[in-house]
Amino acid sequence: MKPNYERGIVNLAASLASAWGAEKTAYSPLAELPAEKLRQRPVALLLIDGLGANMLEQYPDSHLARARTATLSSVFPSTTASGITSLATAVAPQQHAITGWHMWLRELGSVATILPFMPRHGGVAYSAAGWNPRQFIGADPWHAQANIRTSLLSPKWLIDSDYNRALSGSTRRLGYQDMDDFFLQLVNALANGLPQYLYAYWSELDGLAHQYGSYSNQVREHFLALDSAFAAACAALQGSGALLLVSADHGFIDTDKQHTLQLSEHPALESTLAIPLCGESRAVYCYLRHGQEANFLDYVNKELSAQCEVVNSAELIAEGWFGLGQPHPRLQERIGDYVLLMRENNILRDRLAHEKPFHHLGVHGGISYAEMTVPLIEFST
To answer: Is 40 exposed, middle or buried (0-12, 13-18, 19+ CB in 10 A)?
Structure first.
């Protein structure tokens, strides 16, 4: 599934940005969210990391499912780093150039784990050397131009991270401890009925889906608790005029060890690469050694064609997979020479010397319907 940049989370962000006076971009607002629906009232966007459309469809009688109004597209790659940056900037990866969990930052000569803002090889954060994530994000947060009071509600362990600070700027940051505290602070922030925008980020569903799989009992129990708490918050806000919007950055697909490819098991492929794999395990950016293009393509097409499709990365830009309009000058260098788009539920990983083996049951970043679609949920109080 190719991302839809006319009906996606980028357009959700464009709706919010345009309602409150931020500069217009190439991305049009959603028809469901005209400016008059958003202005002169409290508005919250609950971003439930990993709540894909497929996952929500497992619970048709839930409060969240009954308040669903539309299905939206994620961005490519369908992953948190790219998705939350689009929601903060109201542009796609085509412009902000945050292209996945692992990114080659040529400026630093380093493969970055971008959200923790650390080198993949370990050590201290880039901020210890004086770098700021804003120096690598190709667009400014839309709320910096907006004429509305804004707040960020995020886990306490995450609230003051380098990347959070970069995307929030001067926005008021609120940290929560657990689910009860999350919804208590959300209700307290909106209950006075005054116009404002609150971005509330919930991370735990994503973590459980990674660990146990998106169809697991652990995810089910957590979702039902989250749904109940959401319903209670909506009831508590009745009469305030607040509008609660709920969406996600990506969905999930479940994999297993039989569909997990390790680069070390393909030494002929590994020998064609100049640097470690980048991007996501479902959308893999490959940087080739000089003169190795034919060997790389020959190996992938002969040995891995059942597991992945190989695409020239420049073609993905030209075909609009990363967004609309003029690409960021560094976009090409951040997506490698070729991209391996994994088929079915296959993933491809490599491992650096210090990295411990791990296995995620729930994965994302690819182009399946399950990964690429998220709900839009609206509840007016």
So the answer is: exposed
